[in-house]
Amino acid sequence: MRAQVLTEEIGPDGLQLQERPDPVPQPGMAVVDVKACGVCFPDVLMTQGKYQLRPELPFVTGTEVAGVVSAVADGETAVKVGDRVLTTVLGGFAEKTIAPAQMMLPMPPELTFDEGAALGINYQTAYFALKIRADLQPDETVLVLGSAGGIGVATIQVAKAMGAKVIAAVHRTGAADMLTELGADHVVQLEEGWGDKVKELTGGAGAEVVMDPVGGDVFDEALRQTKRGGRYVVIGFAAGGIPTVKINRILFRNIAVMGAAWGEWVRTDMAEVGRIQEALNAMIADGLRPPVNVRYALEEVPQAIADLADGKVKGKAIISIAD
């Protein structure tokens, strides 16, 4: 099989398209013919050696897999050959990958493989952050930072499916139409005075929930736009800078600042993946469709990761590997 193998932690230039032996299922495992694999920010960090998970080199990259089970270990009953599945496992940028059968979820029949790969980590993270961490309620207002990225797009759609009002805040120009089509009630450009615009849209109160996957320079102003008694959810630091919190703002305005590290959460409770996927499946049955904004071939994985790192991808990019 062909696979994108990271040989050096120097960014996407450290990837090589290589021929590798086909995986053979061991007890508890199953092999998947990969049809599509999502491109996410952890892929960028892994190529740089900056992610918390640092496998021994060389290794096959890619984590958000949609495909068809092609082989199972003897006696395995969790999946069967021919099942359309989703799984989050290292090794997705390849024609085949192997994963624990218990970690494979049935792919909703309404989705294409590309859409299944786009669902991936982003939508699970969005639901986890909005519902389990922030306890979002219908008719509350959510301010989404980094709204043109993969997490931002997922957050807009999931928040709308939960009955919330959404303000999408975005650095990049030219994304407003896309964000409105996804369901954002308002789009605010992150330029001088953007906080005043948020206050105007919320009647001066601010947003009950702020979703922040970017960190960096917008943190202080975004914290100011959190409603008294509201929740500020930290998802990541795509902008590169890790901000610090001025505790007095939290105290006197009764704001809760909380983390939403989905990967760390499920390491101790794998059953949560299935529960969240059931909730997402209900949203998909009601019409939610993960948008696929950019497609790359397996040969183009280094370019896809470079484009994501450089902020050139609006929405979600996937690697389309097989029909």
% residues in beta strands: 25-35%
CATH fold-level assignment of the largest domain = Quinone Oxidoreductase, Chain A, domain 1
Instruction: Give the radius of gyration.
Output: 20 Å
Largest sheet: 7 strands, mixed
What does this structure look like?
Strands 3, 5, 6, 7, 8, 15 and 16 form a seven-stranded mixed β-sheet that branches. A six-stranded parallel β-sheet has the order 11-10-9-12-13-14, with helices on both faces. Strands 2-1-4 form a three-stranded antiparallel β-sheet, with no helix packed on it. The protein has 323 residues and is α/β, with parallel strands linked by helices. 49% of the residues are buried. It has two domains: 150 residues, Quinone Oxidoreductase, Chain A, domain 1, CATH 3.90.180.10; 125 residues, Rossmann fold (3-Layer(aba) Sandwich), CATH 3.40.50.720. The chain has ten helices and 16 strands. The chain is 31% helix and 26% strand.
Summarize the structure.
With 323 residues, this protein is an alpha/beta fold. Helix content is 31%, strand content 26%.
Per-chain topology:
Elements: E1 2-6, E2 15-19, E3 29-39, H1 41-48, E4 59-60, E5 64-72, E6 84-88, E7 96-100, E8 105-106, H2 113-133, E9 141-144, H3 150-161, E10 165-170, H4 176-182, E11 186-189, H5 194-201, E12 207-212, H6 219-224, E13 226-234, H7 247-253, E14 256-259, H8 262-268, H9 271-285, E15 294-296, H10 301-309, E16 317-320
Parallel strand pairs: 9-10, 9-12, 10-11, 12-13, 13-14, 15-16
Antiparallel strand pairs: 1-2, 1-4, 3-5, 3-7, 3-16, 5-6, 6-8
Helix pairs in contact: 2-3, 2-9
